[in-house]
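Long-time lurker. I teach an intro course on protein structure, and each term I like to show students one example going from raw sequence to a predicted 3D structure in C-alpha cell notation. This year I'd like something fresh instead of my usual example. Would anyone be willing to generate the C-alpha cells for the chain below so I can use it in lecture? Attribution to the forum is fine with me.
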Amino acid sequence: MERTELADILAEDLDLLIVGFNPSLVSWDKGHHYANPVNNFYRLLYQAGLTPRLLKPEEDVHLPQYGIGLTNLVLNIPSANETTVPAAIYRAGGVALEAKIVRYRPRYVCFNGLKLYSYYFKRKLPNFGLQTETIAERPLFVTPSSSGAANMYFTLRQQLYRDLKELINCRRDF
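-- Reply from a regular --
Happy to contribute to a lecture. Here you go:
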C-alpha cells in the first residue's frame, strides 16, 4: 500500500508537541519521523534528558510514553529539504496544526526549525527559545532545525533542547 502521509504521533496531555516542516524523503520511505541518519533529532532529545535513552527512528511511536508527540506542518509532501515546498502550503497547514493542538492539549509546542515560525506567523522570528506568541493558548518554543544540514553548531542546538527540558520540568503546573 502506498503511503499518503507520515502519521502523526499524538496522545492527549503530552508535555511537548514537536512540529516539523514536512517528511524528509528518508522518513517518508522508512515511515518514521526524523529517520535520516544525519538528522540529530533523537540525539538532541536524549542528550537534553527528554528521553531516558537514545531512541532509533523506528521507535518514534514510543515518544508519547516520554510525554512527546510529533507532527509536521505538511504531512503528505516529502522532500529533500523544506525549501522545495512552497511557503503557501506550509501556511495552509497551520489550520490543521491548531486543530491538533486544541484536540490534544500539549503543555508546550515546539517548532523544530526557525522558518516554521515565519510560515505560521507570517513574520520573522526574533530569537530562539520560548516565544511570547502562543498557539491555541499553548506556549511556543522554537529550536533550530535538527537536520544535519542545518547551519548551526550542535552545541547551541543542544543548549536550546536543554532549555526546553528545563522549562518543561519547571512548569509542570501549567
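Some talking points for your students: Residues 16-170 form a domain with the Uracil-DNA Glycosylase, subunit E fold (CATH 3.40.470.10). The longest helix spans residues 87-104.
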